[in-house]
Amino acid sequence: MDLTGKLLVAMPGMGDPRFDHSVIYLVSHSDEGAMGLIVNKPAPGVSLADVLDQLESAPPSGGPLHGVHFGGPVETGRGFVLHSDEYCSAIHTLTIAPGFALTATLDILEDIAQGNGPESSLLMLGYSGWGPGQLEGEIAQNGWLTCDVPSGLVFGMTDDKKWAAALESIGIDPLGLSATAGHA
After folding, report:
1. Quick check: 109 and 87 in contact, CB under 8 A?
2. What is the CB neighbour count within 10 angstroms for residue 56?
3. What distance in Å separates the CA atoms of residue 83 and residue 2, rounded to the nearest whole number?
4. What is the pLDDT of residues 122-165, one digit of tens each?
5. In the chain, pLDDT over 70 holds for what percent of residues?
6. For residue 20, what is the enclosing H or E element?
7. Rounded distance between C-alpha atoms, residue 93 and residue 85, angstroms
8. What backbone phi and psi angles, to 5 degrees, belong to 72?
9. Are 134 and 100 in contact (CB under 8 A)?
10. CA 96 to chain centre
11. How do strand 121-130 and strand 67-70 relate by DSSP bridges?
12. pLDDT in tens, 5-26
């Protein structure tokens, strides 16, 4: 089972407050583990200008103002840009699935700042990672639901609506979920 390009939707009561109501886009999933980016948790008070300032790069001039998201608790000082797949970095862009690509080099931040970046993007600090079999175990323990990416959810919806929209895309009413799991 390869979940690359799918969403993980946190179940209530999963036990880790960092992932409460999280929606994670899975960048990679294999027998060696998984990596994903939380797409609905903004990093309060952090902007593209702040990131460029830290990297001692030119400030934005002409591009849209971008906030930054908390991609996950692993390597929170490392940056990633999840973006639409029409953009390709001169250095390195990984195409994940139709409509989605990932770039983790400074040139994309500079392109975004200049208004020459991808049509759609989310800037992330940190990522979510799992070792071999760990994610599968968390799914089996009712920590996560998985689903295809509904059109417009990742790039076209406000962060506060993504969790409910992901659940509704698989026919689940968020108000009907319980924090306790049962077995039939």
Report:
1. no
2. 6
3. 21
4. 999 999 999 999 999 999 999 999 999 998 999 999 999 999 99
5. 84
6. none
7. 9
8. 155, 175
9. no
10. 12
11. parallel
12. 999 999 987 878 899 999 999 9
> How many Å apart are CA 34 and CA 31, to the nearest integer?
8
163, two tokens: 């969790």
| Helix (H) or strand (E) run with residue 14 in it | none
**Domain boundary assignment for the chain:** 7-176
Report the amino acid identity of residue 154.
Answer: V
Q: Return the structure tokens found at 87.
A: 């953009």
d(CA 56, CA 65): 18
Q: Can you read off the two tokens belonging to residue 140? A: 């089996």
User: From CA 81, how far away is CA 148, in angstroms rounded?
Assistant: 20
Q: Report the candidate in 41, 36, 18 with the shortest Cα–Cα distance to residue 26.
A: 36
What is the reported pLDDT for 68? 87
Element at 3 (helix H, strand E): none
Place of tokens 């001039």: 61
pTM of the model: 0.88
Give the phi and the psi of residue 136 in degrees, each rounded to 5: -60, -40
pLDDT of residue 111: 85
CA-CA distance, 64 to 30, in Å (whole number)?
35
Tokens encoding 89: 């970095």
Fold of 7-176: VC0467-like (3.40.1740)
